[in-house]
Write a structure and sequence with these properties.
Elements (H helix, E strand, L loop, with lengths): L6 H23 L1 H5 L14 E7 L23 E7 L2 E9 L2 H5 L8 H21 L10 E3 L5 H13 L8 E5 L1 H9 L1 H4 L6 E6 L2 E6 L2 E5 L7 E6 L3 E5 L4 E6 L8 E13 L7 E5 L2
Parallel strand pairs: 4-13, 5-8
Antiparallel strand pairs: 1-2, 3-12, 5-9, 6-7, 7-8, 9-13, 10-12, 11-12
Helix pairs in contact: 1-4
Length: about 280
């Protein structure tokens, strides 16, 4: 990379090398992004676009008696449920640097303090935004629960609540908890001892999930103290660019010496169909 000195060349190489690294690091470090539904991805979603996600509602069906009325059947009108997701958010981060060589020297390496700083900022904003959308139902039954500690009884309540809400079982159920709640889980013999059937599950975001009471339990240190979420993946839909956009600009027009490097991505997210019943939230009060 030592022969790359011009601004256009540096920008081109940053987009080429940093974009895929950026997304890999984002997925490795962001638990919630790994879990939520991303089936409706686009290479380059356009700000202002709207994506409709729909599902066919199951018909009621019928049962008839042979020899009485089983020679005929009734039909039902096709019924759909849907949710519209607006691509209306842009998450960005930018840094000012003194010399272009600061970027040049970090282009080809796996480790880049500049890229990692930008990724951390974007990941934090995205994570906070996604969690803000996970607003659980407060009726029939209440999915917003309180607990100062988090032990087997809380996980059991989560399983019962999820089952009563008829969460699908064709995809895993997840439990994301802050370090305090996670410590409670590890201190609970029923949840942590193999003598009670505790086993480990696959890797999610670089972390081995604990398989407990039907949930893949993960620690998310981005959460505040005594906060936890149980969710099914399509509780929340996320549509975002497959690759972020990097740009490097000269600051001379602003009367400054130096450069600014920025990264941004366009996205949209929204609770899924019955999404408020496919997530459960705990807080201490």
């Amino acid at each position: 990379m030592s022969g790359i000195t011009g601004l256009p060349e540096v920008t081109s190489q940053i987009q080429k090398f940093w974009s895929p690294m950026f997304m890999d690091e984002l997925r490795q470090n962001n638990m919630l992004v790994n879990i939520v539904d991303k089936s409706y991805q686009a290479d380059a979603p356009v700000m202002g676009d709207r994506v409709r996600i729909s599902q066919i509602n199951a018909p009621t069906g019928e049962i008839r008696t042979v020899g009485t009325d089983a020679d005929v059947y009734d039909t039902e009108a096709l019924s759909l449920s849907y949710v519209d997701i607006d691509i209306n958010k842009r998450i960005s981060a930018a840094l000012e640097i003194t010399e272009l060589s600061e970027l040049q020297s970090q282009l080809g390496g796996q480790q880049s303090s500049i890229r990692e700083s930008l990724m951390h900022a974007v990941s934090t904003k995205l994570n906070t935004y996604l969690y803000s959308l996970l607003v659980p139902s407060t009726s029939a039954p209440d999915h917003a629960l309180t607990s100062t500690d988090f032990a087997a009884s809380e996980v059991s309540i989560a399983r019962k609540t999820a089952a009563a809400a008829k969460w699908p079982t064709n995809e895993p159920w997840f439990l994301l908890v802050d370090p305090s709640y996670y410590s409670d889980i590890l201190d609970d013999t029923t949840l942590s001892s193999s003598e009670y059937g505790a086993t480990d599950a696959p890797m999610v975001g670089g972390q081995v999930a604990l398989k407990r009471f039907g949930f893949n339990v993960l620690e998310d240190n981005s959460l505040s103290t005594d906060i936890g979420y149980a969710l099914y993946k399509d509780a929340l839909h996320l549509i975002m660019q497959k690759m972020p956009t990097f740009k490097v600009s000269d600051l001379h027009s602003q009367g400054k010496f130096g450069y600014v490097v920025s990264v941004d991505m366009v996205l949209g997210a929204k609770l899924g169909i019955d999404g408020d019943e496919k997530c459960i939230k705990w807080t201490a009060s």
